[in-house]
Every structure is written in structure tokens, then in C-alpha cells.
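Human: For the file, kindly provide a plain-text protein record giving the amino acid sequence and the C-alpha cells, at your earliest convenience.
Assistant:
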Amino acid sequence: MSNLIDLTHTFTDDMPVYPGDDCSKLYQCCTIEKDGVTDHRVESGMHVGTHMDAPLHMVDGGAYLSEFPADKFQGRGILIDARGRNVIDTDILDSYDIQKGDIVLVWTDWDKKYRTDAYFESWPIMTVEFAQVLVDKKITIIGMDTAGPEMEETFPVHKTFLPNDVLIIENMANLDALEGKNFIVHAYPIKYKADAAPVRVIAEIQS
């Protein structure tokens, strides 16, 4: 059995996008029969599918995702079990030993609704206070199996994490496979000079 678990939704032509965003396109532009090769083309915003937000997304003059060193994108993973909660607040952190440099993944099971209309309706949200505690603990990345950490259009949770260089991974999958396990997260985004990018997230199980 492999000790690697893929936490990434597959990027397809019909994947859901955040309400109001342009749809992504992924299509075959060359065929072996006609062109001698197979080739595909993608047209997409950066905040689609499993992706990572950089400070520039919400911070004027913030860092591009491409400016972070590779070691920013891997570290000890901590799985927060937030299933059944509509609001994820600081009290949930009492039973977790979160340390500097950790990558915290918030498991709500909301990814089971991915590719349905319900996915973008009233998903579980994080409080600013929850985010601030994690910032104070100096985590490096926060990840979630929802469309985002909040639903407010002023994005207060984004604006708590990102100015402090806590990167955000949205639309993760398969977090249930990490229950009861120790693991390392590898989350390497495409090196676009941009405010965000698609990311392949892999958990390496330790025990």
C-alpha cells in the first residue's frame, strides 16, 4: 500500500468555479491522427479547483506565490476534525499541539459536495479569532476542503492569514483518509508569477 495520499481534485473541463468567476476551459487542441501529437490547452483563473493563495491575492504589494522558496511548501501536517461544525472557532484547537512551521488542514467533509450546487452554499467557515491563533503559532499553510475559509465578501479571514505569509489552500479532497495518521504535507504550486496557482497536494504518511 502506498504511503502517499492525493488531496487534490482533478482539473477537468467541467470543474466548478466560485460563483461569479469565469468558467475554466481544458480541451484537446491537437490529435495524433491530425497533428501527429496530442496536446491540450487550458484557459483558467488561478482560483479554481485545488489551488493556493499567496499574500498578493489580498495584500497590496504582497508577495507573489513564485517568490516563496520550495521549503515553504512542505511540513508536518496537522488534521483538525471540524466535521459537523458550521463555525470553526478557537475552542477546537485545545486538543491539538500545533507548532511553528506546521501545515494545518481543516477537515469538514464538505468535499463530498464538490461538483454539486450545494458546494457553494453555506459551507463551514472559520472565525478571525481561529485564524489569529494559528498566525500566532506561526503555521506556514492553512488548507481546507471547502471553497474558502469564510463567506464574507470583505474576506476577513484571508486578510488575517495572508499578511502574515500563511498561504491558503482551498478546495482540497480526501482529508478523511488522514484520520488518525501522522503525515507530512507536500503542496507544490505551479511556479506562476501570480497571486495564486493550482497546487498538487500530497500527504506522506509517517505512521
User: Anything to note?
Assistant: The radius of gyration is 17 Å. The CA atoms of residues 2 and 106 lie 23 Å apart. The first strand starts at residue 4 and ends at 6.
